[in-house]
Amino acid sequence: MSEVLRAHASRPPEARAARITPEGLDALAWHHHRTGADRPCPAWTTKAADPAWQETALQPHEMLLLRRYTHLLPSLAAAPAAAGTLWEALIEAHYDTVTNRWRLQLDDTGLAGLAHAVHLEALAGQVTARNRLHRAYGLTHPHPTLDASLVEAATVDAVALE
């Protein structure tokens, strides 16, 4: 039982009549996709229930930093995280448009990798991400213990220079 809405007829204030063109429908679909938050994948939801995984919300520039770090992992000598752990987190991450954050699930290995990434960024002169993640999650970079062979080689080189 649907009522026909006619021009100049009295109608309840919640009733509206509109004819949307195909271009208008496309614009609405575009707007919804652009502003709608991505739904987490099932693996992300499963990890959210596991206490071994911690949800981490990264700003877009911090997400780019973590992606750059993950690409460089094979060539980094002191990297604490395995590339697979971080790739998995990046693939399962979803973007929350309301908070403008990428949401990831990271375990201790992934958090160590993130800490190392922001530490390297801080060494390059950009401390914003390191400071924010330290405030938000208590994330600090543990200074790695150097391999004994590396310490010995550095000592030999220093003695040779003197």
Question: What does this entry look like structurally?
Answer:
The chain has 162 residues and is mainly alpha-helical. The chain contains seven helices and three strands; from the N terminus they run H-H-E-H-H-E-E-H-H-H. Strands 1-3-2 form a three-stranded antiparallel sheet. Strand 2 (94-96) and strand 3 form a beta hairpin. It is elongated. The N and C termini lie far apart (96 Å). The mean pLDDT is 80.
Summarize this, please?
By secondary structure, the chain is mainly α. The chain is 52% helix and 9% strand.
Q: What is the overall pLDDT average?
A: 80
End-to-end separation: 96 Å
Percentage of residues in strands: 5-15%
Number of helices, counting only DSSP H or I runs of 4 residues or more: 7
Largest sheet at a glance?
3 strands, antiparallel
Structural class based on helices, strands and sheet pairing: mainly alpha
Strand-and-helix sequence, N→C? HHEHHEEHHH
Give the total of beta strands: 3
Residue windows where pLDDT falls under 50 for at least 5 positions: none
Helix content: 40-55%
Describe how the helices and strands are arranged.
Blueprint: H1 22-35, H2 42-49, E1 54-58, H3 60-72, H4 83-92, E2 94-96, E3 101-106, H5 108-123, H6 128-137, H7 148-161
Antiparallel strand pairs: 1-3, 2-3
